[in-house]
TrEMBL record, chain A:
<feature type="transmembrane region" description="Helical">
    <location>
        <begin position="20"/>
        <end position="44"/>
    </location>
</feature>
<feature type="transmembrane region" description="Helical">
    <location>
        <begin position="192"/>
        <end position="216"/>
    </location>
</feature>
<feature type="transmembrane region" description="Helical">
    <location>
        <begin position="120"/>
        <end position="146"/>
    </location>
</feature>
<feature type="transmembrane region" description="Helical">
    <location>
        <begin position="80"/>
        <end position="100"/>
    </location>
</feature>
<feature type="transmembrane region" description="Helical">
    <location>
        <begin position="158"/>
        <end position="180"/>
    </location>
</feature>
<feature type="transmembrane region" description="Helical">
    <location>
        <begin position="503"/>
        <end position="526"/>
    </location>
</feature>
<feature type="transmembrane region" description="Helical">
    <location>
        <begin position="236"/>
        <end position="254"/>
    </location>
</feature>
<feature type="transmembrane region" description="Helical">
    <location>
        <begin position="461"/>
        <end position="483"/>
    </location>
</feature>
<feature type="transmembrane region" description="Helical">
    <location>
        <begin position="430"/>
        <end position="454"/>
    </location>
</feature>
TrEMBL record, chain B:
<keyword id="KW-0547">Nucleotide-binding</keyword>
<dbReference type="GO" id="GO:0005524">
    <property type="term" value="F:ATP binding"/>
</dbReference>
<dbReference type="Pfam" id="PF13732">
    <property type="entry name" value="DrrA1-3_C"/>
</dbReference>
<dbReference type="Pfam" id="PF00005">
    <property type="entry name" value="ABC_tran"/>
</dbReference>
<keyword id="KW-0046">Antibiotic resistance</keyword>
<comment type="similarity">
    <text>Belongs to the ABC transporter superfamily.</text>
</comment>
<dbReference type="InterPro" id="IPR027417">
    <property type="entry name" value="P-loop_NTPase"/>
</dbReference>
<dbReference type="GO" id="GO:0046677">
    <property type="term" value="P:response to antibiotic"/>
</dbReference>
<keyword id="KW-0067">ATP-binding</keyword>
């Protein structure tokens, strides 16, 4: 067992490092089914109503792709297990990313080597990441189960559902541990891990959507998890399959990790070109190489998947309310002409904007990473001026989020328009809703630039703290009944609710001007200060 | 233009720490100048000020007849810098980094680039993360040496290179000197500086303690002599500049200040020299003397 020595202390280190991120995603996922359940329970009271609702949603193959086959029993629990299935996919995604983050990323950064030289067993790093992921998944699972029980659903179903959610995180965490062994770079490991999840999702989806191909869902690890069918049969034995698979994959990951050297990958590292393409001859070309991966990631993640989800769910959330006269009226009063769907769209686009602001901040912080790693020094000692170097990164910090919001708005608009049958009307409205968010996003990226220019060591802390403040004020500020003056601190408070509400131009202009002032201040500071500050 | 670099009374503070405390440095055009000092002496800080990356708190700095802070970009096109710790982008190959840095400096000589790749035995296709410390250093060196520039600023460039590659580095620098390039070579390795440099500045705690040609500096050092004579010597002890004298019958061992070498040798030959071993002065000694006499704070 000496191979596992130190697993406990490494696990504690992981929890400490992720003490902010970990509770946030755990809580977010844990309350997702609960909030869905309480909303649905008030609207669809009888089995017949719920069956009608299920048939309604189930007529769309796209929704089946995400939700899986329709439940065989229209009880509330089964409906929620089915409707919230995307949460299990998110659990799986987090499993992959979390384990890679605490294994391969550490190794690539050289921190693993530091630890490896202390009293830490061969398997400890992988085991610690898996144990932590399993612990977090089980806690989410228990919270999901308790939440579902609080909605008067049967305990057996609630626990089957909670366990299915947990199993998604645990099984895909183990898969992430395997992909982390393959390549030297964390980026490639993530790519392989996400591709594996994508294949699992695709196989399962194909099996669920296509009649006669349902066996495909048994080929996919994600399919097993969907096939638990909590509240509609509670197929406990599927957990046996999942447990065996998880054990096998874990053993594989440990074997692979023990066989290779620290820092090395099992796949031979890919060689690059012996000389640079003619285009690689400016700071901007270099910045493109450094930023394009995350830009693609955000475009696909938020722009396409998120956009489609926002657009797709807007219709269902509107339908959800269509039967309820009173609620519809209230919604129309807050939400303007198109009511519920608009409120939903404006809200989700606002949430998406927060995520995109995180992208803007991280792109701006890339300058800090480059500086601290001493890579900017080499460039600034050539014929590249400081402003030109900074500008090459700012393009991505500001235009990157702009493009992502544009694609998000287009995707959501097209999809929502397709479900309502009026693309011509919906695309510009939804796109507008996405684009009005930009000034707030820019302000956060610009604040990061300002801090980078003036007091660089604080840039990461202040950038992320500002985003956290916006999240808190935006998401729970109203519930906490915070004063308007406090809420006004967040730039997102000043963004008009579009689509549905009126577009107020003045706040957008003011925010844009604030962003410009912050960037100018940051650049002025950067031109004047020493480089590199380490 | 006579001097490529002239620095006088340079002061740089980082909060409480005074990194440079009145440093002087003059590098003539076309010379290879050794910039010697122990870790933390202020070599990197000086070079960063020469690059206009950091601003001096006092003193005057001229680089290629320009002001490093104000004329940074135009000056940078005429020089190449190799940092002490070359860091690469993990997803760019070594060859890409060499080309990129060369192009940003205003172009590099492809034939020279390929020749250097071969001589330094570097595979340019590996990605940044796959290189060892020594190979990263080679990437920086090749990018600098293949650029057509007047001045090379090298900050401890051989750290991490194996002895074989250090030898290649010495040959290449000798060639660069032949081409008339000016080189400022910071180092704490004496043999390297001795082998390559025309003139040397030795700094300690942010101040220049010695500067001059190797010959001039050697005058400050002592030569060790061991001789067997025909007759027992006398009068050696009273000669100026003689230290650590040991006489055993006809055997003599002593150290002599290089300036007094001639007098001492005359005295020895007057006793008939049967065999003579003399060890030339090394910078090492000079170095040690400076750092021993003033204990670090
Ligand atoms: N950015 C900085 N902040 C604080 N102190 C620094 C900084 N850079 C250098 N120093 C200090 O200045 C002194 C000279 O450092 P440096 O120029 O790196 O020496 P060398 O290159 O000769 O080893 C050291 O005492 C070092 O700790
Ligand atoms: Mg140094």
């Amino acid at each position: 067992m000496t191979a596992f020595t130190g697993t406990g202390s490494l696990a504690r280190l992981i929890v400490r490092r992720d003490r902010v991120l970990l509770p946030i995603w755990m809580l977010f996922l844990a309350v997702l089914p609960l909030s869905l359940a309480s909303g649905t329970a008030t609207l669809y009271k009888t089995d017949a109503e719920r069956q009608g609702y299920i048939d309604d949603l189930g007529s769309s193959p796209l929704l089946l792709l995400f939700y899986g086959t329709k439940p065989t029993d229209p009880n509330l629990g089964a409906l929620i297990f089915w409707r919230s299935a995307t949460g299990m996919v998110i659990m799986a995604l987090i499993g992959v990313l979390f384990v890679i983050r605490h294994t391969r990323v550490e190794e690539e950064a050289g921190r693993r080597e530091l630890l490896g030289a202390t009293v830490v067993g061969r398997h400890a790093a992988v085991a610690a990441a898996l144990v932590t992921m399993a612990g977090a998944s089980l806690i989410v699972g228990v919270l999901v189960a308790l939440g579902m029980m609080s909605q008067d659903t049967p305990a057996a179903g609630a626990f089957a559902m909670g366990l299915a959610w947990a199993a998604a995180g645990i099984l895909f965490g183990a898969i992430g541990a395997v992909t982390a062994q393959l390549s030297e770079g964390a980026g490639a490991a993530r790519g392989i891990g996400i591709a594996a999840l994508g294949v699992a999702f695709g196989l399962r989806g194909a099996g669920d959507v296509t009649t006669g191909l349902s066996w495909l869902t048994w080929v996919s690890p994600l399919g097993w998890i969907y096939n638990v069918h909590a509240y509609a049969g509670d197929h406990w034995w599927v957990f046996g399959v999942i447990a065996v698979a998880t054990a096998a994959v874990t053993v594989l990951a440990l074997r692979l990790s023990a066989r290779r050297d620290v820092g090395a990958g099992l796949l031979p590292p890919r060689l690059g070109p012996a000389s640079a393409a003619p285009s690689l001859s400016s700071p901007l070309a270099l910045a493109w190489r450094l930023h394009r991966g995350s830009l693609y990631g955000w475009l696909v993640g938020l722009g396409v998947v998120g956009g489609l989800l926002f657009g797709g769910v807007a219709k269902t959330s509107a339908d959800l309310l269509a039967d309820n006269e009173e609620l519809t009226q209230i919604m129309q009063r807050i939400g303007g002409r198109s009511g519920a769907a608009d409120v939903f769209l404006a809200g989700t686009l606002g949430l998406g904007a927060i995520a995109v602001a995180a992208y803007g901040i991280s792109a701006a912080l890339r300058m800090r990473t480059e500086e601290a790693a001493l890579r900017s020094e080499a460039l600034l000692a050539t014929g590249v001026s400081r402003l030109r170097w900074a500008a090459s990164h700012l393009v991505f910090a500001f235009l990157g989020p702009t493009v992502v919001m544009l694609v998000t708005g287009l995707a959501a608009g097209l999809f929502y328009g397709a479900t309502t049958g009026d693309i011509g009307r919906e695309v510009p409205r939804v796109l507008g809703g996405a684009l009005v968010q930009l000034p707030a996003i820019w302000v956060l990226a610009a604040l990061t630039v300002a801090v980078f220019g003036l007091t660089p060591r604080r840039a990461p802390a202040i950038g992320w703290a500002a985003l956290s403040v916006c999240v808190v004020l935006g998401q729970i500020g109203a519930a906490l009944q915070l004063s308007q003056a406090l809420l006004d601190v967040s730039p997102f408070t000043h963004i008009p609710r579009v689509p549905g509400g009126p577009v107020t131009v003045v706040p957008l202009l003011v925010l844009t001007v604030i962003a410009i002032v912050l960037v100018v201040a940051g650049l002025a500071g950067f031109r004047r200060r020493s480089v590199p500050v380490t | 233009m006579e001097n490529s670099i002239s620095v006088a009374g340079l002061v740089k503070r980082f909060g409480q720490t005074t990194a440079l405390d009145g440093l002087d440095l003059t590098v003539a055009q076309g010379e290879v100048h050794g910039f010697l000092g122990p870790n933390g002496a202020g070599k990197t800080t000086t070079i960063r000020i020469l690059l206009g990356l950091q601003r001096a708190d006092g003193g005057t700095v001229r680089l290629l007849d320009g002001d490093p802070w104000h004329d940074a970009v135009s000056l940078h096109r005429r020089l190449a810098y190799v940092p002490g710790d070359v860091t690469l982008w993990p997803n760019l190959s070594g060859g890409e980094v060499i080309d990129l840095l060369g192009r940003l400096r205003g172009g590099l000589n492809p034939a020279r680039r390929n020749e250097l790749l071969e001589r330094f035995d570097l595979d340019p296709r590996k990605k940044g993360r796959a290189y060892s410390k020594g190979n990263r250093q080679k990437v920086g060196l090749i990018a600098a040496l293949a650029s057509d520039v007047e001045l090379l600023l090298l900050d401890e460039p051989t750290s991490g290179l194996d002895p074989l590659m250090e030898e290649v580095f010495r040959q290449v620098i000798a060639e660069e000197k032949g081409r008339g390039r000016t080189v400022l070579l910071s180092s704490h390795i004496l043999s390297e500086v001795e082998a390559l440099c025309d003139r040397v500045s030795i700094i300690r705690q942010g101040r220049t303690v010695e500067t001059g040609t190797l010959t001039q500096l050697r005058h400050l050092t002592r030569t060790f002599i061991s001789a067997e004579l025909s007759t027992p010597p006398n009068g050696l002890a009273s000669l100026p500049g003689v230290h650590d004298l040991h006489v055993e019958a006809n055997q003599v061992r002593l150290q002599v200040d290089s300036a007094q070498l001639d007098t001492v040798l005359r005295q020895l030959t007057s006793h008939g020299v049967r065999s003579l071993v003399s060890q030339p002065p090394t910078l090492e000694e000079l170095f040690l003397r400076h750092y021993e006499t003033e204990p670090a704070k």
